[in-house]
Amino acid sequence: MILVLLFALFWAALASWRIRVLIRFFQLEEYQSARYIRWLVASRHRAVPDRFLLGATAGFAVAGILLVVGLDAAALHLPVWLVAGAVIAWPEPAKEVKKRFVATQRATRLLVTAWAVAILWHVGFGILVASQTDAVNATTLEIVALAGLAGYVLAPLALPVANVLMYPVEETFRRGFREKARRRLARARPLSIIGITGSYGKTSTKDYIAHLLSGRHKVLATPKSYNTLMGVCITINNNLDPDGGYEYF
Questions:
Q1: Who is most buried in 38, 91, 112, 233, counting CB within 10 A?
Q2: What's the N-to-C CA distance of the chain in angstroms?
Q3: How far is the C-alpha of 92 from the C-alpha of 4, rounded, in Å?
């Protein structure tokens, strides 16, 4: 049973690594599950990487050959799947990263929850398989490997699942953060607030206006492209001194 659980944990580690890689894109999609899933399925290479197809095909091919020739010892099949798993999870060549993952408190909570979902899937299946057999053989490992491959392919969906599970917690944090920003903004009155909307050029326009106004007035602008509700709240809570004499935000 120990060997089966360790093998299941091996696949859980591979799935967790994939989740860690993909959370950057979930963050880029502003933690919106529907947008992230559309991005994921827009390309087959994102949902089912070539390395996965290569490793899974090689693993089943070699394991099948061993079974055909009568070699069904677990000690022979385990290394096959360890190598196949390494091929599957081997990092792709480094590419230029436009925006790196930022380990915010929310992202960290989401990542840990997604890892827990992946680990529960693999370990739970491993326990189920181990409970149905007295001795570990090739068939047992093949079943766990099949579940591991399924878990690896479905690993990206652990992020939306974690997002749903963490919604009550995150909503509580967001509500408190919004209320804090609202109170802080009210204390800074009289303060003129300028909002800029549009599809393109919002950040540049904001920077131009802030630069022009700062020649005669004390101005606070959101940094970079902080244009979401939480981004604005972060600026207010961290940078807006209610007694700082700001005239424009």
A1: 233
A2: 62
A3: 29
Which band of pLDDT confidence, cut at 50, 70 and 90, is reported for residue 97?
low
Residue the block writes with tokens 């904001």? 206
pLDDT tens profile 147-196: 999 999 999 999 999 999 999 998 998 899 899 999 998 898 889 999 99
Provide the 8-state DSSP code for 192: B
What was the pLDDT predicted at 140? Answer: 85
**CA angle (140 as vertex; 72, 65 as ends), nearest 5:** 35
User: Looking at this protein, which amino acid is placed at residue 133?
Assistant: T
Measured between alpha carbons, how far is 84 from 78 in angstroms, rounded to an integer?
10
What is the crossing angle of helices 138-154 and 105-131, to 10°? 160
Coil, strand or helix at 77: helix
Query: How far apart, in whole angstroms, are the C-alpha atoms of residue 1 and residue 130?
Result: 5
247 by DSSP, 3-state: which?
coil
